[in-house]
Every structure is written in C-alpha cells, then in structure tokens.
Write a structure and sequence with these properties.
- The chain is of the alpha/beta class.
- The protein has two domains: 2-85, Double Stranded RNA Binding Domain; 92-172, Orthogonal Bundle (Arc Repressor Mutant, subunit A).
- The chain is built from six helices and seven strands; from the N terminus they run βββαβαβαβααβα.
- The protein has helices at residues 36-49, 64-74, 92-101, 112-118, 125-133, 160-172; strands at residues 2-11, 14-23, 26-33, 56-60, 84-85, 110-111, 146-147.
- The strands form two sheets. Strands 4-1-2-3-5 form a five-stranded mixed sheet. The protein has a two-stranded parallel sheet with strand order 6-7.
- A hairpin with a 2-residue loop joins strand 1 (2-11) and strand 2 (14-23).
Length: 179
C-alpha cells in the first residue's frame, strides 16, 4: 500500500491542487496543477493504474515545503523549488517529454518542435503538445516554457493568463548580464 498526501492552497495564480509522497523523509511531489477537475481525473487514473483504492491510501495533509517553495517561486524569490518529483502515471513517451522539459532553464523557452527533436522524435510536435497537456507537475516540470516556433506562446494546461504571468515572471527575474 502506498500513501499519497493531498492538499490545495491559494497562490497568485489561483488555487493549486497537489499530491505528494514522503519517501524516506524526503518530499516527492507527484502532482501540482490549478484545476480541481484535472486533479480528480488524475486521482481516478492513479486508482485505475494501481489496482483500485485498496492499493493506494490518500490522506489530506499539507506540505509546508511545497507550499512555501511554490509561493516563493511565484514571487520571484527563488528559481528552483528544491523538492523532488516523481511520475506515477504517464506513457513512456510522455515521461520522456517531461524529463527533457525539466532540463529547460529558468527564464529560457523552447519550441514544441525543438523539444520533439531533443527527445529523438522529430516531427512529433503535436504529440509533444499532447504530452504537455497531461503534465502532472505544472510548475516543477515547466511546460509554460514551451512556445511555438514562431514565438507565439501556444497553449497551456494552466490557462493562457497563467502562462503569460509565468513567462513574464521568469523574464523579469533573469540575472543581470555581466560586462
């Protein structure tokens, strides 16, 4: 049996719903998104993938570490939230996309096309977009950093307004250029 903690909290981008596991006294985020319905769908998916509710226990418990890190990130105080994450669901292709995306640096952007090329699937731009829509870790795995090849921001599971906020936040908090 695995215990998964769940909670929600208010932020400047709205209410975030999150799931986490305490593994060897270390927090591992498994889900952070701003949609209650998406969270409920994800919980259902986990129950289906792991054989029903008898194999998973869900507890209502907050993580001060996750909430503080996310809020500090959203205020521009920190660039890396500092907690680990793990994927409990997703296809091999989706996990490949998410893992590669996690290496895109704060304040940088990448196109759907370039991301597809980096994972060895040139021409799979739409499949990359589909994988990003299913990203369970909206901020820790920064899908807001993926834009269209023409420079337009593209879609975002957290909403266009949130994507613009995150891109503007990261752009305004870039380190000063050295001479």
């Amino acid at each position: 049996m695995a215990a998964i903690e769940r909670s929600k909290f208010k932020t400047v981008i709205g209410t975030l719903y999150y799931l986490w596991i305490d593994r060897n006294n270390e927090i591992n985020a498994v889900y952070i998104r701003n949609s209650r319905s998406a969270c409920l769908q994800y919980l259902k998916k986990l129950r289906n993938e792991y054989g029903g509710s008898d194999k998973l226990i869900f507890n209502d418990k907050k993580s001060n570490k996750i909430e503080t890190a996310v809020n500090d990130y959203l205020k521009g105080i920190i660039r890396n939230m500092g907690f680990k994450y793990m994927f409990l669901a997703g296809t091999e292709f989706e996990r490949k996309v998410w893992n590669k995306l996690a290496s895109v640096s704060y304040g940088e952007t990448i196109s759907y096309k370039k991301l597809a090329e980096l994972i060895g699937h040139s021409g799979a731009c739409r499949a990359v977009g589909s994988a990003l829509r299913k990203n369970p870790l909206m901020l820790a795995v920064p899908c807001h950093r993926v834009i269209r090849s023409n420079g337009n921001i593209g879609k975002f599971s957290g909403g266009e307004k949130v994507k613009r906020f995150l891109l503007n936040l990261e752009n305004s908090c870039k380190p000063e250029e050295t001479l």
